[in-house]
Amino acid sequence: MGRAAGVDERLVAEDEMRAWGEALGHALPRPSVVAVSGELGAGKTTLIRAIAVGLGVTERVTSPTFALVHRYESPRGSVYHVDAYRLKPQDTADLALDDMVRELGAVVLIEWPERLGSGAPPFTHRLFLADADAGARRRLTAG
Known about the structure:
alpha/beta, Rossmann fold, seven-stranded mixed β-sheet, 3 helices
């Protein structure tokens, strides 16, 4: 299978994925909206945690599975971590994603973006994780 122009695909171990995520966080322009997709257990929260570290977040980044949104501060502005796994598309408006996206200098990191339906904001980056090598490595696709 060939790669589309502008698509980066690689096999990474967890430490490589964290290093890649931190580098992405350092390089992300503000504002940005990053969609992170993948199966349960693929490493979405681990990758988002690494991106947040690269953005300068010093707090422990945890999964907002039940809270839906966690907000963190970094030296360059707010970082929002959204987990839409338990969200119904008709409830997307309740998240106030538009407010997060409009906040000057904010970065919004969204797990399970496909669950947002038509209420999803425009994404500046799309990442996809999948198991590879019986779970020893992940297939990381960025495009």
